[in-house]
Design brief:
The protein has helices at residues 2-24, 52-63, 86-89, 96-102, 159-166, 193-223; strands at 31-37, 40-46, 71-76, 80-83, 119-122, 135-138, 151-157, 170-173, 176-179, 183-192. It is of the alpha+beta class. The strands form two sheets. The protein has an eight-stranded antiparallel beta barrel.
Length: 225
């Protein structure tokens, strides 16, 4: 009986650990977004099952080119690098379609995912449903933010670029630590890792088929000259 209880307890512990791991490491979608800054590239992916509305909104802004000419207005070493709201942060004017999407807000999709280094977290005002287009890349763990801001993705490439940003001179304005020079998002693009994988597999298959055709023809010529 004791052995049975111990086994059940161990089993439950494994389940709790597994659930915790899933909450902390949610499924990363196949889409990747790249911000090309004047200090290097930053790439990230989305958590579509954690914050679907937020992911859809940010990805729409990316597809429309809304983040182009925007900037990182805040770089607090070991804490966050924060992208400005595109409505006021861009140096280029917006067209009507861009502005319409940029002025939308999304519901606060708070989750159990933790604010650890590398995650992407939406900025907002006091209203929990006021997130728009400003978001932060965590430069370190920040557990005090857990459950209060919507996490929607994580960094996939660009650690070196972020390290460069952390070394830039800053000034403090209230609670914000801000770079003294503009960190511009020169351009953005996106791609799908699944499609790239399919293209690679198709290319390999095509080469194999070509090689097989050559071998079949060689054998045919050998057997039936």
């Amino acid at each position: 009986m004791r052995a049975c209880k111990a086994w059940i307890l161990s089993f439950l512990c494994v389940i709790f650990i597994a659930v915790g791991a899933l909450a902390q490491d949610p499924h990363l979608g196949s889409v990747r977004v790249v911000f090309q800054t004047n200090y290097g590239d930053i790439e990230f992916g989305f958590f579509p099952t954690v914050a679907p509305q937020t992911v859809d909104h940010i990805f729409t802004l990316v597809r429309l080119g809304c983040f182009n000419t925007n900037h990182f207005f805040r770089v607090d070493k070991g804490f966050v690098a924060q992208v400005a709201d595109v409505v006021g942060g861009r140096s280029a004017p917006m067209n009507e379609e861009q502005r319409k999407e940029a002025e939308k807000t999304v519901v606060g999709e708070f989750s159990d995912v933790k604010h650890v280094k590398g995650v992407l977290s939406m900025g907002r005002f006091e209203d929990p449903n006021s997130a728009s287009s400003s978001f932060s890349i965590l430069l370190g763990d920040a557990p005090h933010l857990d459950g209060q801001y919507a996490i929607f993705g994580r960094l996939t490439k660009g650690d070196e670029t972020l390290k460069k940003l952390e070394q830039l001179p800053t000034r403090r304005e209230g609670i914000f630590v801000m770079p003294t020079e503009r960190i511009t998002i020169l351009s953005t693009y996106y791609y799908d890792t699944e499609l790239e994988r399919c293209e690679k597999d198709r290319s390999i298959l095509k080469r194999r088929l070509t090689a097989s055709a050559v071998e079949i023809e060689r054998q045919r010529m050998k057997c039936f000259p």
